[in-house]
Amino acid sequence: MSKRPSLSTSLIHHPYQPPPGFESPAVAIHKASTVIFKDTAEQQARDWKTKSGYTYGLHGTPTTFLLEERVATLEGGLQCLLVPSGLAAISLVDMALLKTGDEVLLPENAYGPGRELARQELAGWGIAHRLYDPMDPQALAQMMTPATKLVWLEAPGSVTMEFPDLAGLVRAARNQGVLTALDNTWGAGVAFNGFDLGSPDEATLGADIVMQALTKYPSGGSDVLMGSVTTRDEVLHLRLKATHMRMGWGIGANDAELVLRSLPSVALRYAAHDVAARTLAHWCAGRAEIAQVLHPALPGSPGHAHWQRLCTQAAGLFSVVFDAKYSRSQVHAFVDELKLFKIGYSWAGSTSLVVPYDLSMIRAKPAWPGTLVRFSIGLEGVEDLQADLAQALGAMV
Ligand SMILES: *Cc1c(COP(=O)(O)O)cnc(C)c1O
Q1: For residue range 246-268, what is the model confidence (pLDDT) as tens digits?
Q2: Is the Cβ atom of 68 under 6 angstroms away from ligand 1?
Q3: Phi/psi of residue 123, each to 5°?
């Protein structure tokens, strides 16, 4: 080796270290595929299953460990796994817990892509699924068989917004020793604690697994996709973690940083979206064009009493069903007429969004005859959003 190392070597093995004592509220973004061990003893001793040390980028960095800890805190859980999207979190739970010959039960109003996963991949692997009525815990209790290994829960249902008796559903599954997994994307860990459903006689009545699309409220920026799978049971966590590791699911440090930056404001943003959405939902309920407003905090919305028992807050999300006299193309014209509301999937960002849904694609027996439109209320001025709704409704003929 020559006296002076090459420029590249000098740049790679540079002497710079962050100054000791530098502390900042901002978290450092640690990036790694490889993690260097001091010696073979250290390399042999470190275990990817525990957080006592770092082994490989896919198994975690200080940045992802920090985010896991914060999401576990948000959800009221103890352990957390991060995956590249909310849908990946659903597939992680399904893959870790279900084997050929098993069965999973999904609510009829479940998040659509999760249902498609059951219909396509799970069915192909010999894992059956059936849909249950989320508003009827007794029916769920009667549906379970020895093959039933997992019950998915969602509160409220995507798009149609029925709020179930979560405690009743969990109790039905638990009585038969079946695990429950809650998609907590709507509640975001803010509206209620998925691990503590507030049953006065049952201190620990909650879902076994709480999954969330961090893409939505925890990010809030419409710029990152991420999912989490949180637990309060180390054995269950390790079962999920083993599959997580074998599937090779990891998240990027920059994405982790975006969520870490957003998390401190999640409760404030949630509250602001909630106030605006409720104002607009009440206003929509007074419009002749609209037959039904679906928002769990509105009396008359399906499952309102269940929402009221568990929550005081609600996400900034609601759906409206138009009077059946309006054709689908008339409702589409209303959506096209909106200026501030942008047409787009997802929710929880600062831009208000709108999507029309064909109810017959969502439910075998649609409860309402008209066309449904879902709004995600952003952070614009509520009076501006109301004026936009008014002008687009006014243009309907
Ligand atoms: C968005 C969403 C998901 C999936 O999250 P992605 O990050 O978009 O994959 C899952 N469940 C619900 C209820 C959602 O709204």
Answers
A1: 999 999 999 999 999 999 999 99
A2: no
A3: -60, -40
